[in-house]
Design a protein that fits this description.
It is a single chain. By secondary structure, the protein is of the alpha/beta class. A hairpin with a 2-residue loop joins strand 15 and strand 16. The chain has 38 helices and 16 strands. Helix 28 crosses helix 30. The C terminus is likely disordered.
């Protein structure tokens, strides 16, 4: 029993959900009429579609005064698109409104060649095939290979003069004829075209046989058909029979109408003969409505040729009116659409209830069913218009919408009667664009099929299915324009496979990790821009007010910086994101693409959700791991590294102009003097590196504008000499530093390597230079020395001879270095 009380849910009523309209007609014509909805067709005039209703088509066929000769209307549609439904409706209309007019209906269920030809014989002569003919069919159904041998031998005898050649080809040709003959004799169902021999098989024999085939396929096929008629159909000629029937009705001043459900399925073996005769317009006086399933012709080369003739040959275009119930592949029905599928479902559900002898007006569950519908125009319980739309949108793309939709409705009702839950049943046949998140799992499973969105109430749905009401409920629609709402947000986003991939990930299903790129990037973008103390992808002291973010971790995984690790999807290290973020995932997908007020709304939605706190905590935890990882590589804490590098910068380039210079004066009285001494011997750091080092120092020690963390600086420099500072920097293993860490635009390992070159030269100069000698130089000599050291151009003629002698006597180390450089340049 279903988990809710509906007296009408009884198995007897499933009888109205039949596979074919003929089966519904067997229940009674009133059941057929009750479940039939008006059908619309399309006629294409110069590639422009015109709508033709079923009533207009009936009136068109009723008009017989203006037509002489055959009139052929081809009704195109994919399998299951409603061709048989229209033929049945048309047949019943003629029976009721024009009973005197002769009408012949060959339905898709009449697939026996014998019965079709037998009906035509009876119309013409009043007699049926003899008992001997019927008996022969029964015998040959048990011996299809025997009949195949007789047919092949019959054909070869008429085509070949040599016994040797007949013997050489006989068994090869039997092998390709027998499977087809067997299907012709036993055909009771099928979609592909039948023929007595297939062109593709014939061509394969031609290629594989050493003996050349001295005849063409069409000639061979025709002889096989002639033999089949002689042996199995009392040598009845289709063309002659149709001509005789036409003359018979013309003499009675009647214009017969022939309804053929499907050219392939209904008259299969003689499809070409039927079509050729009817399109020779002056040979008869018939109105012919022929159903054509284009896909049925695709299984054989001859079928494809016939379809090409129908579609493209001018003779057919001129002589055949073409109407369409659907496109060729069945992707679109021209009358069963999202707007009309509810009406079709209602007609079947009404008949279903009537068949079970349940009258809604007296049913105790009426108010409950009506409450489920709310604004719906039809009583659709246990469905709603929204649920039906989701079923309709999920129908297989390559199947006719009509049959597939009716079959799906029956499947759902049958599953409910067998005790399945509505949510599990829908999950097996439908797709939903809605993601639902609540604290009651049963409501999640149900509402994603039935709810319209957060703007609509859902209590009536939960009450109908006896599901507890959740305290927290949020819904996310994945295929409509993005517009976040209040706390119980429905995020309606563009129709994008990303959103369906996110939904599948949240539900624990398999998903292509590449489809979750926007989710990773959105989370990373939000974390980088949210007003939190998280230093994403940059390393600095947490108490710094406005960091330059000069020291960066540029590690990239799946195109996101820093890496975002999605639960059960990614295996690398990064900021871990679990499925518990729920519908926030869809906000993150859109957060980097939104702008203006929408961006502000999204930020508020995220800020108000407590789950973002855990996300921020995960980001802080990851960045702390990365900080420890880098400190392990360089062997000292990062704030100490920033201080030592800054000391080197002051030593080589002098004190900056900002307030921190006073700090350094208080910390070491010797530092300025050492700089004045060393600057004549060591090249200063380039300006871009100086700026980077200054920003690095600020990122670890600048608390506010012009306010530095002096106590921490004092603590870190306690008992350190300048030489010890240089030694500590010099022994950092730069080769261990991961290449993903950058200082500005330079890899950190390259910066450290460059600094160590400077330190080596500084240590050498520190031990060998004579500060007193430098001090004994004249002011002019010191100016020249400084300009040369800074890399400025100094004309040789502007340097006094006395200065060269002073450099040689008082600064021999600098003189030797300058002498080597000058010789190298002159060479």
């Amino acid at each position: 029993m279903p988990p809710f009380d509906m007296p009408c849910l009884q198995p007897d009523g499933l009888a109205v959900f039949t596979q074919t309209p003929e089966q519904r007609l067997l229940l009674g014509e009133d059941w057929f009429n009750a479940t039939h909805i008006p059908m619309g067709l399309r006629r294409f005039v110069r590639d422009k579609p015109l709508v033709v209703t079923e009533d207009e088509l009936f009136a068109h066929l009723q008009d017989t005064q203006r037509y002489v000769g055959n009139r052929v209307i081809a009704l195109y549609g994919a399998a299951g698109s409603g061709k048989s439904e229209l033929m049945t409706w048309m047949e019943r209309h003629f029976v009721h409104f024009n009973p005197q007019r002769p009408i012949i209906r060959i339905s898709r269920t009449e697939l026996d060649v014998l019965s079709i030809i037998n009906r035509m014989k009876h119309l013409l002569t009043g007699d049926y095939f003899s008992d001997a003919t019927v008996q022969r069919w029964e015998e040959m159904r048990r011996k299809p290979r025997t009949l195949s041998k007789l047919l092949v031998l019959h054909a070869l005898e008429r085509l070949l003069d040599s016994d040797d050649l007949i013997n050489a080809l006989f068994y090869r040709l039997i092998d390709i004829v027998e499977p087809q003959v067997k299907q012709v004799l036993e055909r009771v169902a099928g979609r592909e075209a039948l023929d007595i021999v297939m062109r593709d098989d014939f061509e394969a024999v031609r290629i594989d046989t050493a003996v050349a085939l001295p005849f063409e396929f069409e000639v061979f096929r025709q002889h096989l058909l002639d033999g089949f008629r002689e042996m199995m159909l009392e040598n009845m000629s289709i063309r002659e029979t149709l001509s005789a029937l036409s003359n018979h009705f013309t003499q009675q001043q009647q214009r017969p109408i022939l309804l053929i459900d499907d050219l392939v399925q209904s008259i299969n073996l003689f499809a070409t003969e039927f079509l050729d005769w009817f399109t020779t317009l002056d040979q008869g006086n018939w109105d012919v409505l022929i159903g054509i399933t284009p896909a049925s012709f695709q299984h054989d080369a001859r079928g494809r040729e016939l379809l090409d003739r129908l579609n493209h040959l001018d003779t057919f275009d001129d002589r055949v009116e073409k109407l369409w119930l659907s496109d060729e592949q069945g992707f679109e029905s021209y009358f069963l659409t999202e707007a009309s599928c509810t009406a079709l479902a209602f007609s079947y559900l009404q008949s279903f209830r009537r068949f079970n002898r349940v009258e809604c007006a007296q049913c105790p569950a009426l108010l409950r069913c009506q409450a489920l519908q709310q604004d719906d125009a039809y009583l659709l319980a246990p469905f709603t218009e929204t649920a039906l739309l989701r079923l309709f949108r999920s129908l297989p793309a390559t199947k006719g919408k009509v049959r597939a939709f009716i079959t799906t409705l029956r499947f759902v009702l049958e599953a409910l009667m067998d005790g399945e839950t509505i949510a599990d049943t829908f999950a097996s046949v439908a797709k939903t664009e809605l993601f639902v998140e609540s604290d009651v799992a049963a409501s999640d499973a149900l509402l994603k099929w039935y709810a319209k969105g957060s703007a609509h109430p859902v209590d009536h749905i939960l009450d109908f299915f006896s599901v507890p009401h959740p305290l927290h409920l949020a819904m996310t629609s994945l295929d409509k324009p993005f517009l976040p709402e209040s706390t119980n947000a429905r995020v309606e986003s563009q129709d994008d496979e990303t959103h369906f991939a996110v939904r599948d990930w949240l539900e624990g299903k398999e998903v292509n990790r590449q489809m979750l790129q926007k989710l990773r990037k959105g989370i990373s973008f939000w974390l980088r821009n949210v007003q939190t103390p998280v230093a994403l992808a940059s390393l600095h002291h947490p108490r710094v007010a406005r960091p330059h973010r000069i020291l960066r971790d540029a590690r990239v995984e799946m195109d996101s910086v820093p890496p975002i690790v999605l639960q059960d999807i990614d295996q690398f290290e990064g900021i871990e994101v679990s499925r518990s973020i729920g519908h926030l995932a869809f906000l993150f997908v859109q957060v980097s693409e939104a702008g203006g007020r929408v961006q502000s709304q999204v930020d508020r939605e995220l800020a108000q959700d407590p789950r973002t706190i855990r996300l921020i905590w995960q980001a802080e935890r990851y960045m702390e791991k990365r900080r420890q990882y880098l400190e392990n590589q360089i062997g000292i804490p990062l704030d100490e590294f920033a201080l030592l590098v800054y000391a080197l910068r002051l030593l080589l380039n002098g004190s900056p102009t900002h307030t921190i210079s006073d700090v350094w004066t208080r910390l070491s009285d010797s530092l300025p003097a050492l700089h004045e001494h060393l600057r004549y011997f060591i090249a200063p750091l380039p300006s871009h590196l100086v700026k980077a080092i200054d920003k690095l120092f600020d990122d670890f020690f600048k608390l506010r504008d012009n306010l530095y963390d002096i106590p921490r600086i004092h603590h870190l420099l306690q008992n350190l000499t300048v030489e010890q500072i240089l030694h500590r920097l010099y022994h950092i293993p730069w080769e261990n530093i991961d290449e993903v860490f950058y200082l500005g635009n330079l890899p950190m390992r390259a910066v450290v390597e460059r600094l160590q070159v400077q330190i080596r030269e500084t240590l050498n100069a520190f031990h060998t230079a004579s500060p007193s000698a430098v001090m004994r130089l004249s002011a002019t000599d010191r100016e020249v020395l400084g300009r040369l050291q800074q890399g400025d151009n100094v004309p040789l003629g502007a340097i006094p001879t006395t200065s060269w002698q002073d450099f040689h006597d008082k600064t021999p180390d600098f003189y030797r270095r300058m002498h080597v450089v000058m010789r190298r340049e002159s060479d």
